[in-house]
Design brief:
- This protein has 301 residues and is α/β, with parallel strands linked by helices.
- The protein has 2 domains: 64-159 and 256-298, Periplasmic binding protein-like II (D-Maltodextrin-Binding Protein, domain 2), CATH 3.40.190.10; 162-247, D-Maltodextrin-Binding Protein, domain 2 (3-Layer(aba) Sandwich), CATH 3.40.190.
- 33% of the residues lie in helices and 20% in strands.
- The protein contains 10 helices and 14 strands.
- The strands form 3 sheets. Strands 1, 5, 6, 7, 8 and 14 form a 6-stranded mixed beta sheet that branches. Strands 11-10-12-9-13 form a 5-stranded mixed beta sheet. A 3-stranded antiparallel beta sheet has the order 2-3-4.
- The longest helix has 19 residues, at 22-40.
- It is elongated.
- The termini are far apart.
- Residues 1-53 have low confidence and may be disordered.
């Protein structure tokens, strides 16, 4: 071997010692440091992008109409699972329903852009009162509990309560079978059916369904015998599930007006909304939108 050849440290045997020789340990540390530096210089995987920041909260001390002129944008709360009202198609993502059409018409009348804010019956009071949206437009039932926290427009729809059971149910066949011992009756949390059925049921057991559970899945699994809903939501079920059956009340049970909801205290804004409701009733836009969405039978005259 030439005398000037570089001496290479011997590789540790794969069978012998678990510890590296000092020379190999130094080489490993150098490689690790180089790898870390290369990662810091951008060779490593790119970090996942951060989600966009939420829109700034509205200044609730400023009247809505004043804010609309400044921002040019109307934030509208909707519940995107409300068939015929504000429904997002799970396959296309497209929104449809009477209040999708009417919110677009309202924004056009105001001369502003429309921005939807996802809400639900369980969160709508907080969403409206804390300024996440300036109006909730998804057929909000006007209940005494909601009137304590929200202001409402004139009614434009109204609905009674209906039962939904399975076609094969032996326990629930008629309306009178619902409030009986041993019957499990479900309602969606936050809907107006919850306080109504809490008060009305005397013998049946009330089950309150909260996400991610659904009334349909609980019924299919046999954990409930019937659930209560309104006219628009019952249409979705009956059009898409032939194993369900509608049980209408034999006489009016609890007809409730549906309206738009806003934060109390801004009378000019509520007056503008009522002017819109009166206009769509008079010029036929409400009737036409109801007809397109199968809701003519529950128009508030």
């Amino acid at each position: 071997m030439p005398t000037n050849a570089m001496h290479r440290p011997s590789r540790p045997s794969s069978r012998s010692s678990q510890a590296l020789s000092p020379a190999w340990r130094g080489l490993a540390l150098c490689l690790a440091a180089a790898f870390c530096l290369s990662g810091m210089s951008g060779v490593s995987r790119a970090a996942a992008p951060e989600p966009p920041p939420p829109p700034p909260s509205a200044d609730l001390s400023v009247p809505v109409l004043t804010r609309l002129k400044a921002s040019g944008e109307l934030p509208v709360c909707i519940w995107p699972d409300y068939y015929g009202i504000t429904f997002r198609n799970p396959y296309t993502g497209q929104l449809s329903g009477i209040d999708v059409e009417l919110s677009e018409a309202f924004a056009k009348d105001l001369g502003v852009k429309l921005r939807y804010v996802e809400s639900s019956f369980a969160t709508v009071i907080d969403d409206v009162t804390k300024g996440r949206c300036d109006i909730a437009m998804f057929a909000i039932g006007v209940t005494p509990q909601r009137r304590e926290r929200l202001a409402f427009s004139a009614a434009y729809l109204q609905s009674d309560i209906y039962g939904i059971t399975t076609r094969s149910s032996r326990l629930v066949k008629t309306w009178d079978d619902i409030d009986q011992p041993g019957v499990a009756v479900a309602v969606q949390a936050g809907t107006f059916m919850e306080p109504v059925m809490t008060e009305r049921l005397k013998q049946a057991r009330l089950v309150v369904i909260r996400p991610p559970k659904t009334r349909e899945a609980e019924l299919a699994a046999g954990r409930i015998d019937v659930f209560m809903t309104d006219y628009p939501y019952s249409r979705r079920l009956l059009e898409n599930a032939d194993w369900m059956r509608l049980i209408p009340p034999p006489k009016p049970f609890h007809v409730l007006p549906y309206a738009y909801a806003v934060r109390p205290g801004d009378e000019a804004w509520l007056t503008r909304i009522n002017s819109f409701v009166a206009a769509i009733k008079a010029d036929g836009r409400l009737a036409a939108a109801a007809r397109r969405n199968g809701l003519t039978d529950i128009l508030a005259r």
